[in-house]
Each structure stands twice: as structure tokens, then as C-alpha cells.
Design goal:
single chain; mainly alpha
Length: 115
């Protein structure tokens, strides 16, 4: 829930003048990706690359996804308005949810207790 809220505010901060409603859970899902990255960075995930299924470290896959969202969000902000909507994807909501997931996982994850 907190990741979804952070995602909403991140998108609002970058598109305050928009009259397009926000709908979806992608910001919260991005928060789950951020948490997964903190908890399991070396775990291998399978990715479909063309016709091949390739196992890659989560850090590479999720890191690439985050960079793609960040650049797409910045490109959407700097784009010249044409009167038509540019796909309707709230990239900055993805970025905000992801960052919230990273930070909240560091804050709330169990600490290892050594005797």
C-alpha cells in the first residue's frame, strides 16, 4: 500500500497539470520489484530473449527495467505536447513505487541477530 501511495505522489509531482486519471497497480508492483532486488539480488531469473530462455541475475534484469522506466519517464516529461496522449503510461509512478519498495525493505526487513 505504501509503495502504491509513493507511486501516486511521484507521478503527481511530475504531471501535476494532467487531467488524465491514474488507474492501476503498476506502481505497487514496481515496489515489489524493488523489494525483491534488495532481498535477492543474485538470484537468477529466467528471461525470454528472442527465441532463447536465458537465466540472468535479478540485479541485471530488474536494474535494466528500472533504468528503462527512469529514462522513459524523463523523456515523457521533456516531450513537446502534441495534443494527443503519449501512451498513457505513468513511468514516474513506476520509479516512485520502485524506490519506495527499496527503501521500505531496508527499513522493515528482519535484522540478522548474531549471538
Amino acid at each position: 500500500m505504501l509503495c502504491g501511495l509513493a507511486a501516486t505522489f511521484a507521478q503527481l509531482a511530475f504531471s501535476a497539470g494532467s487531467d488524465i486519471p491514474q488507474l492501476g497497480a503498476s506502481g505497487a508492483i514496481a515496489g515489489v520489484l524493488g523489494a525483491y532486488l534488495v532481498m535477492f539480488p543474485r538470484t537468477r531469473v529466467t528471461v525470454l530473449m528472442g527465441m532463447l530462455i536465458v537465466p540472468l541475475p535479478a540485479l541485471v534484469v530488474i536494474g535494466f527495467w528500472f533504468v528503462l522506466q527512469l529514462f522513459s519517464g524523463l523523456a515523457a516529461i521533456t516531450a513537446v505536447p502534441t495534443g494527443a496522449e503519449e501512451g498513457g503510461i505513468a513511468y514516474m509512478a513506476h520509479v516512485g513505487g520502485f524506490v519506495a519498495g527499496l527503501l521500505l525493505t531496508f527499513l522493515f526487513r528482519p535484522r540478522n541477530k548474531q549471538a
